[in-house]
Amino acid sequence: MSRIVVLGGAESGVGAAILAKVKGFDVFLSDNGKIKDHYRELLDKWQVPYEEGGHSEEKILNASEVVKSPGIPAAAPIVEKLTQHNIHIISEIEFAARYDTAKKICITGSNGKTTTTSLIYYLLKQAGLNVGLGGNIGKSYALQVATEKHDYYVLEISSFQLDGCYDFRPDIAIITNITPDHLDRYDYKLENYVKSKFRITRNLREEDCFIFDSDDQITIGHLSQILVRAKMLPYTQHNSVGEGAFLQDDRIVLKYKEDETEIYLKELALGGRHNVYNSMAAALAAKAAGISNEQIRSSLASFQAIEHRLEPVLSIKDVLYINDSKATNVDSAWYALDCQTRPVVWIAGGKDKGNDYSVLTELVREKVKAIVCLGLDNHKLHEAFEGIVGKENMADTLSADEAVKAAAGFAQAGDVVLLSPCCASFDLFTSYEDRGDKFKKAVRNL
User: Fold this and answer.
1) pLDDT tens-digit profile of 308-356?
2) In CATH, what number is assigned to the domain containing residue 226?
3) CA angle 147, 108, 317 (to 5 degrees)
4) How many domains is the chain built from?
5) Which residue, of 52, 67, 90, is where some domain finishes?
6) Pair (14, 51) in one structural domain
7) Does pTM surpass 0.85?
């Protein structure tokens, strides 16, 4: 029996371990740090043997293959040991795709990929397709392949995940844009990072589609040096294209095969120039997936979280900022924290209404890395959570600008900054809408 060893005991690693178990492998999971309670419970439920707090080489170096979580760099000692032993190392995405026959729409890029992924998922769901959401967003792709059955997957894929992909092939691949990012993992060479992003195209066939921003100079520069066999669907705000999407006056023109349609910018739910690019990419992916023009138009118009309720604002340097200002009580904040799958920098506080924060203790322990207090009196938040996140990971602020700057200081690529205050707004703001609007403005001014 082949032995699969999984390195990393969070969302992607646990998903991969469960899939390996379902497929009958001798499986073992190892995490150098502490595994969160939620993931330990899953591993126990599926009877996956695991260790935490260090790597036992004798249990790892006998692997037929290793599935490595994206957060573990190639320079980690255990990874270097595996390389010396010529043991093949892959990502969860590569592993899960071996057992998945669904159509895959896969999105990478430096900025905008979370919004674009969410848009495409919404478009497909609204069209009535049986679709899963995964990769760097939502539930583990491998866990869904192990326990669910979808006809389509929309996957947000980071460069770290692509580094462990070899035979993986999307049906529709999207690169939103490329800006210098994560260069510490790529020998501080932009070229290495760009090549990593373009791994998403390496196995594309002529019948597949490649959607890309032709206004992005780094993308176009690399594209001129390689051969991509797939149908090319560029999108641009600066000129017209024969097939793809472009801006003409106040509307997007969408051209796919013999079909042409227009979407007026005023109809789009998401405002801002960056979201025009995201909407173009999503619309092209939907067209390539066979969704009608009418459905695309109506979905792009209706997509949006309720304002101030888990409303994605912007993704900056791969940190997603979410406005949940409407969460003025503990229950609302509990829901907001519970549905996050990435590490959270939590902005909380305001006029306390006699809140009992103890119901949030486990969620904060599991999800939150830092807390930014936004209020005149934050002593209850400090009492409740300082012992969990640490005094050094808490900050006190008196304005949305201060709070966003403090949160950006705590956040790293792959994190979420979540404004979900748990409290009324009246100590510093006129209403939750005022608080949410000022938060969004502060994020856009970063």
Assistant:
1) 777 889 999 999 999 999 888 786 788 789 878 899 999 999 988 677 8
2) 3.40.1190.10
3) 115
4) 3
5) 90
6) yes
7) no
